Amino acid sequence: MTTVAEHSLRARGTRTRRILGRAVSAVIVLWACATLIFFVQILMPGDRATLLLNQVSGEVRTRTAAELAPINRQYGFDQPILVQYLRYLGQLLHGDLGTSYQLARPTTEIILGQLWPTVSLMLAALLIAWVLALAVTLATAGRGRFRSATGSGIETIAAALPQYWLGILLLLVFSLALKWFPAEGDLGPRGLVLPALTLAIPIAGFLAQLMRDEFTRALSQPFVVTARTRGLRERQVRAGHVLRHSVLPAVSLSGWAVGALLSGAVIVETVYARPGIGQVLVQAAITRDIPLVSGIVLVIAATYIIANLLVDLAYVRIDPRITTS
Amino acid sequence: MRRRIAAASSLAVLLASGLTACAAPRQTESGTTVHGGRVVGGKVVDGVLEYGHEQEPSCLIGGWVQQVYLMRQFLDSLVTVTADGAVKPWLATSWSQSPDGRSWTFHLKPGVRFTDGTKLDAAAVAYNFDSLLTGAGANSTAQAYLQEYYAGSRAIDATTFRLDLRKPYQPLLPVLAQGYFGIQSPAAMRRGASANCVHPVGSGAWIVRQWNRGQNVVFTRNDDYNSAPSTASHQGPAYQRSMVWKFLKDPTLRYGSLETGASDVIYDVPTVDWAAAKRSYAVQRYITPGRAVSLTLNATRAPFSDERLRRAFAYSLDRKAGVDSAFHGAYPYNGDGALSKSTPGYDPRFAGTYSYQPRLAARLLDQAGWTARDGEGYRVRDGSRLTAQVVYPAGSIVTPETVTLLQDLQSQAKEIGWDVQLVPATQSAYFAGEYSTRTSYDAMTGYWTSPTAGVMYITWRQDLANRPNSANIAFYNSRRLEGMIAVGNAAADPAQRQVAYSSAQRYISDHALAIGLYAQTTSLASAPDTKGVWIEQSQGEPVLSDAYFTGGQ
Cα–Cα distance between A150 and B543 in angstroms, integer? Predict the structure, then answer.
């Protein structure tokens, strides 16, 4: 028989082990990302020193050994790949993301400078996605065949929309034709609407599809019958009782959605010419700016990890059974 | 729950009202754009001009025409050219050439200063030429033009500068009108390439205030500007106090930016919107001289090492129909592969040499032994297919419309039996030299902007081990061809020069070394209330220092 104190100690030990496990897996994920991005960049065709010289001079030219030697020395390209890799990992271990080849500024400084526009875009998109998904689910799920089928159709189409095409379409309709929103140049809330919608609509399609399934299932549960017999109105039953049971999978998907939003931001920031790390990542990839590409990818990976952790916490909050089990 | 719904509704209303508040239009009731300026003599000046450009280079100075567009805003050149090719004064008020043609003396405008306060005198100009052509500030395009000719520079006195050449180079003046030869502050150049890349300093109408990468370059007015070219609409500082040069790569966004009033002027009007733009905006078009966008054929490996196959390929393609269709009639077809039709010294006689003649193409292929066809309709010989790998630098040099054109040509060529494989070169691979070798393509898509037919000396000079020439992308080494162009560059007599250039053009055409597609084009569209924008005539850069508004404030 175990005492309460022993039980408490064991629980704490389990929690510590779980946290440690998570930390170790986070480090492994980050290391794998850093390694992958390093070798992808290294193994891409073309000489890196030539690229650096030609990008700056704006000309495609075969460079002489005398031109290439100082660049190779400066960036360590003349070292064996393993040495370059170990040096790169060593820098990362010291928390140094390196200095951008093209921008000649610390990667951390560049990322921090570009973080907020992307984060605000993502948050706005996530919020809009949830609002749209909830609205479609509440309005159509379990409300007769026609409405359900319409809602389901809208979700499938929304989830299938390619973001580049959607961005151009929204731009053509709401900016060029109706002139409701600016095409570019407005970094305030008004300028955020179309980019955020572009990101949000496909995500909303996925979220709503999941929510609808759970919602329909929950509607046939006994507690719904109980709620109705207590005289609650349909709206109260749906919003107050059924919804809580149907959002869990969608909450779980939101962890994935953060990643999807970040990769979507690359497209959206390019289409709408908005500042942000998506736009910087595209430029860095084009110019093979390894420190900058790997720095941004590591930030994205870290965001993924944190988002999934937050999703786990949200689970506990929404469904108390998870804590007790 | 009802309280929560009420709270959510309030939040939504608040957000919506916030959006509406921020939605205050940038336009007055009459529809004119707000620029934040003041009215002086009927012109709105001291405002902010917003310009929507396309490509963003990796450095604000350099040897790419996309860098020249920016350089023109903050650098002044020694001379400028007009639409008919006449050379006019800029920093140099007059000039003369020595009888042997090897020395050029320029008399400079006195009292000009760079925006860092240092003097723009003959010593500064001499430093620039030394640095651009042989020193730390080397500009690869400037070198491509002059390195072989350059002997040295001398400041004779504060306002007299002499440029010495090893041999006569007659296209010198129009060549110097290009932004690559814009005069920079020596003090700024000495800071090194990194600083100069981001914060270059000239004596031009605008000062680089800040480069927000991926977004824009913010320029402020040079209030002490006293060195506008003689071709400018007005002398003195720019009319507007600030200019925002935005990078709007997506064509829909760029045109939308003009339509919604976020930009006052845009570059490269999407061809699909060209007709509509002509109705609603003030549009300008500049057909860039130099080498037109062409398919240059790799003469060192099969199939195009065989001249018959080069000619057969050219006859296989209905290029004019392809260009008209892909660019909606907005870009001019340029049949000549050596020169753009707007180049001073261009000879129009060879533009139609390779008109679309599928039967002749088929006959040439039959004669070369490519008679059989495989199951997919491609010609085969000795078990191998008639294949041509056409590389195009996607995203940097080639636009989506060009890709449409190439796809059209690909299907035309298939009719004759060619297996044309289109290979998009990423910007990274292209600039890294992945497609600079003799084994990396059969045909390359590209152009070279230049105000002289003498550009052929760059694009066709032999590529030799002791004198490499990366711009000879046909890898075609002909002493005879090089000699013809060199004679043209040296000839003092314009008629003699024309004969030499024409014979070089004929040679390139006769040997089917390059197939012309369309002329590289600069187009600008300005909002109805934006006046005074003009296009520089050596490279096609927008000039924004004369721009003013006519609308409300």
Answer: 54
